[in-house]
Amino acid sequence: MILEFKYRNFRSAKDWQVLSFEASSDKVAEQYYTTVINDTRILKVGILYGANASGKTNVLLALDFLRKLAISPKINKTQPIGFIPFLLDDVTKKEPGIFELIFFVEEVKHIYCIEVNNGAVLKETLKYYPGKQPAEVFSRVTINGITRIQLGSKVKLNVAEQEKLQVNTLSNMSVISAYATANFIFPELERVYNYFQKQWLPVLLPQIDLKTWATGEVEAEKENKAFLLDLLHRADFNISGFDVQQNENDKKNTELMFEHTISIAGEASVHYLPDTLESAGTMRYYGLGTILNTLLERNAIIPVDELENSLHPDLFFHFINLFLVNSTRSQLVFSTHNLQLLDTDDLRKDVVWFTEKRDDSSTELFSLDDFNIRNGVSFLNAYNAGKFGAKPMLGSIFIPKK
User: Fold this and answer.
1) Which residue among 139, 199, 350, 355 is buried most deeply as judged by most CB within 10 Å?
2) pLDDT tens-digit profile of 227-271?
């Protein structure tokens, strides 16, 4: 689980921005919003609000960028990393970006730091806590395209394995991703690589079509289909079944057919519709349902941009509550424009974050918990009154006539 994510000079973030999942002293809905690892209370959800172009999506993309750095090796040292600095400043556009993650893999706390430009990983360190004090797994620096790796004193690799790791780590890739190409076991790196590879899901953006991925998950496990069918039934879509069928005209592709049972005056009839005739909301929930199943089945992390996209507000709230009530050590980080969520009685202040665009067009990320507002007061009314900022500054509705 993520305890804290900190980064600077990436996309719209010019200065250090911190997204924390460490629970405050607040005890509202404690059993649903938090989990405990080694006496540390960790939040299972993070909610991002803010005006358009304020940087909400970029927070999620920063998380995903770190995930990619950790699991994606490079073919050769000329491949760009894909790093984008804050470009609206002559200084920062030439500077590297820095990312720091404090996280738990099972019961073990880790600290991972990486500094990059678009051509190289300049610095990288990984520490963990075998006891109360941290121990270094490795540190690396890249100078003039040459990478040097220093292993911690507790690490037990033979000379050949150390040399293999050194050779595999190109200047434009992380040590963690380089380890994935090595043919030996490095336990301290193995668990961290698996954490990023198996527990972190790619960022879900509004334009991404989830149907293909979700259908693949359904075909892989019968339990996935049963879970999803139950979820669609709870959502009141009038769907009694669905099946994956081969396209008659294109054998390489499949069609998703939904079964609808219609009952009139006690007489039931069954009808079928292809997914192309289902509503956008139905298909969105079909995909999100598979995401939810993943979050409940394993300790997963997923960033989602505009989670409420195509969903009725009641269904949006229902999805969040299903996650909070039934998950254990998964985390859902999402942006939303649905303000009604701020008006629910059991919303914790420490899970709500705002992004605001500064005068220099950089993003400022801050928490609702930073404000002296007591529980029981309508956060929605306070937000609408401008108490928290993070609202669009709109001009007059009158347009001068030509």
Assistant:
1) 355
2) 999 999 888 888 999 998 876 666 567 789 999 988 888 888 999
Element (H, E) at 231: helix 222-234
Q: Which residues, in sequence order, are bridge partners of residue 45?
A: 332
Instruction: Count CB-CB contacts under 10 A for residue 258.
Output: 22
CB atoms within 10 A of CB 350: 22
How many Å apart are CA 300 and CA 263, to the nearest integer? 39
**Considering only CA atoms, which of 83, 87, 104 is closest in space to residue 40?**
104
The strand ranges marked E within 322-382 are: 331-335, 352-357, 363-367
244 touches 221 (CB < 8 A): no
* pLDDT tens figures, 152-179: 999 999 999 999 999 999 999 999 999 9
Token digits of residue 144 = 């003039």
**Predicted structure pTM score:** 0.94
Contact 368, 353 (CB under 8 A): yes
| Cα 80 from Cα 35, distance rounded (Å) | 38
Predicted pLDDT at 81: 97
CA dihedral defined by 242, 248, 253, 257, rounded to 10 degrees? -10
Q: Is 177 exposed, middle or buried (0-12, 13-18, 19+ CB in 10 A)?
A: buried
Please state, in angstroms and rounded to a whole number, the distance separating the CA atoms of residues 339 and 49: 8
Q: In whole angstroms, what is the distance from residue 322 CA to residue 292 CA? A: 8
The DSSP secondary structure of 62-114, one letter per residue, reads: HHHHHHHHHH---SSTTS--------SSTTGGGSPEEEEEEEEETTEEEEEEE
E-state strands within 217-340: 241-246, 254-264, 267-274, 301-304, 331-335
Structure tokens at 81: 């990393």
Residues of the chain with pLDDT under 70: 247-252
- Helix, strand or coil, per DSSP, at residue 220: helix
